[in-house]
Amino acid sequence: MRTSFCFVFLALAGISCPMLHGAETSPVARAGADHDRYEQMVARAIGYLTAKGQAEDGSFSSQAGPAVTALVATAALQHGRTSSDPLVAKALQYLDQFVQPDGGIYRTGSLYGNYETSIAIVCYAAANADGRYSERLTRAEAFLKGLQWDEGEGKDPSDLAYGGAGYGKSKRPDLSNTQFFVDALRVLGNDENSEAIQRALIFVSRCQNLETEHNTTPFAAKNPDGGFYYTPAAGGSSMAGLTPDGGLRSYGSMTYAGLKSMIYAGLGPDDPRVKAAVKWIETHYDLKSNPGMGEAGLYYYYHTFAKALDAMKYEVFVDRDGVRHDWRAELRDELARRQLPDGSWVNDADRWMEGDPTLVTAYALLTLAYCRPQPNAGG
After folding, report:
1. Cα–Cα 20 to 30 A to 207, which of 2, 85, 291, 353?
2. Helix or strand or coil: residue 276?
3. What is the pTM of this model?
């Protein structure tokens, strides 16, 4: 009775009592609750994909070709599923039909050979614990490198297309396809000394709004903010539009894609290109939108955001106002807020297929793989 009276008195007096709050607010308890919420988010998402996303033939959103299926299977593998898991096994069996005689992994007649093969490589590499896909991956790597714009296409390093990868009838290179290309080569063991990755760095550097010896395009001088845009090739293009004097506007998803690709190509934090990209991110740090694009491409943005900050080895990111961001926790919170009751995610701004909950749920799971709650050493 005396103890209860003490608690009531302390509470009425506004005095914090460890016995009142101890286990509930301790760092260990908070970390445990965060971990439980994370696992629930992942389980609900995979539950949605298993129950509502996968067709009888093992595919996901098959109308879009093999890429969405590969993204879903990769996401499941990154969250602890194995190649024998029913969802993954059926997805891999579905993907097998897209392996082409030239080594590529794409739908017959597809204009998206680089994109589809790059995504499939990452998937098969994640499922290759026993080496069953090693030969397939070797052939896919050779196919992918053959698509890069270089001397084989009659281009030299002075050409604005040089080093890039693209798709469509013209195969015009762009930063999005080039980042998928670099990601695929990385999982296959190509490091910064890879000739293909160094050629890609030439193209990536020209996608940045930064005038240097690596980038003498006319666009950089018109909008020298350090961010990145879609492509300097074929007259240049930015999905965020043009500045009043004809510069190409930088935007979030491409800036993180460019930064990540530069890190993978061996550039360090003191390189002027990296410094300029980080400065742009400090100015435009945001998890409510894809900076420069609103909600268009938001979940693609989340994925590149997480991969880039992980590649930079940031545990805390400090923005231009000096605010410290535990970016993993903030991104988990944002994804938790956006997850639907059935476990999926979807983007009401459905540009670039983000109206498809299967694709967007795959993006969210791939993002969460970089945002696992860290053990609290100070607990």
Report:
1. 353
2. helix
3. 0.90
